[in-house]
Amino acid sequence: MKASSFCHLAAFGAKTILFRQKKPILGTVIVTDKCNLHCRHCSVNNITAVIHPYCQIKAEMQQLYAMGVRILFFCGGETFLWRDGDKTLRDLVIEAKQMGFLIVNVVTNGTFPIDLPEADLILLSLDGDRERHNAIRGNTYDTIMTNIVNATASNICFYMAINRINQDAIRHVCTLAGELPNVRAVSFNFHTPYPDTRALALSREEKTECCRVISEMIDAGAPVFNLKSAFPYLINNSFPTPCHQCVVIENGQVSTCGRCIDVHGLCDECGYFFVAEYTLLFRGNFKIIWEMLHTYLKYI
Q: Residue 6 falls within a domain, yes or no?
């Protein structure tokens, strides 16, 4: 991370903590909900299957920047499906950098060639070993592994949503993240139970065991992009929601924290590790602040 970026983000954090501000710093643009997969845990793919035009995406980026957002995510659907004429996802990342965003990340399912060195992080969804991943996402594991090996930059971060199918594959994904040269780290979430995927949700006891394993892997030196200090809050869903420092924009509509905010009761069962980490950070939790500084400076 550049020193100037670190200083800006540190100043934002300090002002937010001291003055209890609710301004956003992290924003996500949904470029499309079209996806080439139909994953068992996903409730937001192919609802409209619309690929939003470049002019709209650019305007939404400008809107987020004007709101104060400086950490930007492009998300889907599947982001690598996005295209408008001769414009591709790479053009959006470059545009965002030129616009002034300090960190620009992309979320992908990894089934398309990964040629995006301009992104700070490419969060690639890997949901376990071959057997468990394919049980969730279809027969895609080997394709993803090939694309990782052939990627043009070492800016990939595994992005695993832990559910009842893959909860025993945490060690595998941590080990793989440490072995593959183009993979920088792994970031975990717990499955957030939309009404149609509630059967995949973990119990409190299962979350406790998962956090124990993740902590063990961190202590063993695995490159995990999560904060151990937040684990007790995630297990008990005792962190404050929503996260006012995060916003999502989709087809012109801005939502605080995420799209799931409109689903009644879902915030109380939130499984997003970053939501717990950010809300605790901006409440001034010292352990979270210290651990986040160490972790972010290592992996971004």
A: no
CATH of residue 231's domain is: 3.20.20.70
The answer as to whether 7 is a domain residue is no
Is 4 part of any domain?
no
pLDDT per position in the chain (300 positions), as tens? 777 787 888 899 999 999 899 999 999 999 999 999 999 999 888 888 899 999 999 999 999 999 999 999 999 999 999 999 999 999 999 999 999 999 999 999 999 999 999 999 999 999 999 999 999 999 999 999 999 999 999 999 999 999 999 999 999 999 999 999 999 999 999 999 998 999 999 999 999 999 999 999 999 999 999 999 999 999 999 999 999 999 999 999 999 998 888 888 899 999 999 999 999 999 999 999 999 988 888 887
Q: Smallest Cα–Cα separation from 162: which of 183, 187, 139, 130?
A: 187
The alpha carbon of residue 35 and the mean position of all alpha carbons in its chain are separated, in whole angstroms, by 17
Q: To the nearest 10°, report the CA torsion of 215, 218, 219, 221.
A: 160
Q: Whole-prediction pTM value?
A: 0.95
Number of domains observed in the structure of the chain: 1
Range of the domain at 54: 22-35+48-299
